[in-house]
Request: fold
Amino acid sequence: MRVVVGLSGGVDSSVAAHLLQQEGHEVIGLFMRNWNDESVTINNECPWIDDANDAMLVAHHLGIPFQVMDLSAEYKTRIVDYMFDEYGKGRTPNPDVLCNREVKFDLFLDAALKLGAEAVATGHYCRKHTDADGVHHLLAGADGNKDQSYFLCQLNQHQLGHALFPIGALEKPQVRAIAADIELPTAHKKDSQGLCFIGKVRLPDFLQQQLRVKQGNIVEVPSNHSIFERRLDATLEERAEPFALTPEMGKVVGQHDGAHFFTVGQRKGLRVGGKPEPLFVIGTSVGSNTVFVGQGEDHPGLFRTALPLEDPHWLDGSSALRSQPSLSCGLRIRYRQPLQQGKLVVLDDGRHFMDFDKPQRGVAAGQFAAWHGGSEAVEVLGSAVIAR
Reply:
């Protein structure tokens, strides 16, 4: 079978290509150039040209065809513009999830199919199972410390049907050992960090390319304010609403350069000292350009027990729960978060909610939330955007 591998210049995709080659597949290496503005990239951290050169060296080492594909224009439209729009609304997007849905398994997949490939492969730590009915299931990677299924929680059946994850059943040390054993040029290369295909960037500098600096107030809200009292008889919908914070609820303790540069749970960048406990962001308002903060990592403003979701997506192609209004499952609101116990609830009108057994800290609107089921909750059943 002809398989196009997304060679990123890292060790994971390099070993993925090697394993496919060992299985007898015809392997083609393709590097995606998705960013061409190096002014906001930290020098020597993750410049795309170095990664492309590493990918080319790997392809040469393995003896497979290799080419570079420039998707920078499409990446800007689908990912970067989306980021600016979400941050401008005071939300916190996750571009890596969208990158997989819109770039790796859409634009890249289309290019691979035009090359006559039957599948695309990546170095993600996740697995795929296809059942007797031909339904594709996304499973967590065998390495619990590296599981990346969260980043693929928006894929559909067409995309999963053409996807291969050769290293999903391996742990990271095994991948490193394979790379060293066959002397891959990337065997000892550090894992990349930062935005998908951009690298490690100074996020405020990156956002200030389009989002203007606008000074506003930092307002500290005391932990004993009545707004944080949740009634025992509150409904799911009431608990799912974020705290309705206003500037009158606290006192001004500092200034900031724009509420859209901050997210719930953030500690760094506030530049306010002299408090008994550290300050954390508990909310923002782009309308009044206010950043709300509270003292201490246990401030009640940091916690929520239920979340409203928007644009729900089920990986098996269904639109909602088939036979019951709620599903007990594992819930996740950010990458590498241990699965949380709770329920996915679908109301008669189709609205989706997450209802947690324990309060969740630092919930940010705009992030993707995923729900897991099956044996030991290893299968990603679906995902949605945290609405507010």
User: Anything to note?
Assistant: Residues 212-388 form a domain with the Elongation Factor Tu (Ef-tu); domain 3 fold (CATH 2.40.30.10). The first strand starts at residue 2 and ends at 6. Residues 95-114 form the longest helix (20 residues).
